[in-house]
């Protein structure tokens, strides 16, 4: 009998993480001689620890196919840090207990840097604790900060949403600027990496187009230079539109807007920098403003997903299963760029040990000399990632998304587990 597989989603969800789930489940279904059932973890690794597994074999082929165009995490996600083997053997003993009980021999973990740390730790179960399991990470993060892979699924769609939104809002403010609003500020995600903010710059085709200013987390916020740049745009183009990354810091290294909350990984919860920046402009330059915090809208916006992103998310899920069937442990499939124009890519693979906990920031040569824009090299890198549309089906004017049944697998263990 072939072993069953465990699949889970982890970290911040995206518009296309379910496309990867679709790739994993459909591919596993094509190899019934190699992989038994695919059990999904309810809320990521927590589902494994608490023996809360979802039987994906109860879902129809049509519903699994519909995951490809459905945003969010269909099985629930988590921010949960698995400790090191030495620190908390009890967590690993529990994972083995659950995996044994359900005959799980494959582990697929779909997430960003923190999540690939979990994948890597689980991959050591085979080597360090003698439990035979093949563990493959499936990349995902809107922040685009995983190393080795050319880009990360989820990013292309956020990039497209941000570029489209700032283009449209810039048209709006340009119309109003003569007698009303002169400044529009849009805040985007990305944590410590400025990739999402950089994508906003794709909206501008010439200097006078918005956005005129991008604020990156990689560049220390300089109030004086920033205000001069805003003033220049208003005086020369009539208005100024700005994309600000949630992770922008001042010279003391403090986030301009930090809520004071932290997640399980110790990351500061960010958000709310747009009103801070807008107020500063009003106070110092007197311009009327509007601001928006794109927040979850940007990473949930499946209706405007990039086709390259959807295709890659699916292909990476599929490749993860193929790697596992080929017996590769502790690896993660990657996107390898072959050419920009026409955009061509293929699937490669990386060792989880090299991926876990590494954050890929924007390189210096991607940020313009004044620190408020992107270079031609950056544009060349970003452009293909937003290419193509992959609209979901619509009904009654709304996208038709699937909600799975998510039937639980009957528990086999007498023991329960309390999360630490
Ligand atoms: O990790 C991806 C991300 O979308 C970041 O850009 C953002 O800061 C964070 O997740 C928000 O996390 P949460 O949804 O847990 O508040």
SSE series: EHEHEHHEHEHEHEHEEEHEHHEEHHEE
Q: What portion of residues belong to β-strands?
A: 15-25%
* First and last CA, distance: 35 Å
Question: Sheet with the most strands?
Answer: 5 strands, mixed
Q: What is the 3D shape?
A: elongated
Q: How much helix is in the residues? A: 25-40%
How are the strands ordered across the major sheet?
3-2-1-4-5
Q: Uncertain regions: pLDDT < 50 for 5+ in a row?
A: none
CATH class of the largest domain: Alpha Beta
What secondary-structure arrangement, pairings included, does this model have?
Elements lengths: L3 E6 L7 H13 L8 E4 L3 H5 L3 E3 L5 H6 L22 H13 L2 E8 L1 H17 L4 E6 L15 H22 L6 E6 L6 H6 L12 E3 L7 H15 L2 E6 L12 E5 L5 E3 L2 H13 L3 E5 L1 H6 L6 H19 L5 E10 L2 E9 H4 L20 H7 L11 E2 L2 E2 L21
Parallel strand pairs: 1-2, 1-4, 4-5, 6-8, 6-11, 7-8
Antiparallel strand pairs: 2-3, 9-10, 12-13, 14-15
Helix pairs in contact: 1-11
Bound molecules: 6-O-phosphono-beta-D-fructofuranose.
Describe the protein in words.
It is a single chain. The chain is α/β, with parallel strands linked by helices and 420 residues long. It folds into two domains: 4-141 and 303-358 and 388-399, 3-Layer(aba) Sandwich (Rossmann fold); 155-301, Phosphofructokinase domain (Rossmann fold, 3-Layer(aba) Sandwich). Helix content is 35%, strand content 19%. It is built from 13 helices and 15 strands. The chain has a five-stranded mixed sheet with strand order 3-2-1-4-5, with helices on both faces. A four-stranded parallel sheet has the order 7-8-6-11. A two-stranded antiparallel sheet has the order 9-10. A hairpin with a 2-residue loop joins strand 12 (331-340) and strand 13. It is elongated, with a radius of gyration of 22 Å. The mean pLDDT is 96.
